[in-house]
Amino acid sequence: MEQDSAIQIWNEIRLWSDEVLEVPCFGFANLPPCPFARAAWLKNNVVVHVTSDIGDVIEVKSVIPKNHEQLHLFAWTDYDQMTAEEFNCWLEEQNQNHFGVWLMGFHPNATENPLTPEFEGLIEDDYAIILVQSLNKLVEASETLKKTRYYEKFPAEDMQYINRRKEVYDAWNEKACQENAEEGSS
Description:
This protein is an alpha+beta fold. The protein has one domain. The chain has helices at 3-21, 37-42, 55-63, 84-96, 135-146, 156-185, and strands at 46-51, 71-76, 101-106, 128-134. A four-stranded mixed β-sheet has the order 1-2-4-3, with helices on both faces. Strand 1, helix 3 and strand 2 (71-76) form a beta-alpha-beta unit. The longest helix has 30 residues, at 156-185.
C-alpha cells in the first residue's frame, strides 16, 4: 500500500471520529456514539494501522498486554476477502481465545447502524475497521455507560452481545484469579 493512501485513510478515520463518533447524538441519549473517543485521541491512546494483511491484527492482539490503555484501530484494505458475515464469524473466533484482548469490527458491506449518523468519507476506497483493545477496559467502559441512558435505544441483540461480553470477561477473570490462587498455594 502506498504511503499516501495510508495517510488518506488515517485522515479519514480521524475525521470520522471527530465528526461522528465524538459528537453527541439522539440515538445515544445525546451522548457521542463513542463517548471515550475524544479522550483516547487526546491522550495519544489510538494507534491506527493500515494493512492489507489481516494477520497483522492477530499479531498485535498476541503481543499487547491485557490491561493496555491503547486502542489499536486497523483499516483492513483487503476486506473483500470476506463477506460481512464471514468477517463477523472471524471476529467471534478471535474472541473465543481472547486472553484479555477483544476485537470488534465494521465491514463496509454490513448493514449500517441506524443509530449512528451518516459520514461522507474523504476517499473512494472502502476498508474494514477492526478495533483491538483491552477487554477489561472495554467492559469497564460499558459498565459506566450502563449507568446512563446511552444504551436506551440499542436493539436487544446488541445488548445481549454487550452482556455476553461481560459474562465472558467475568468467567475469564474468575479463572485467572483461581489459577493465581492455586499457584500461590503451591
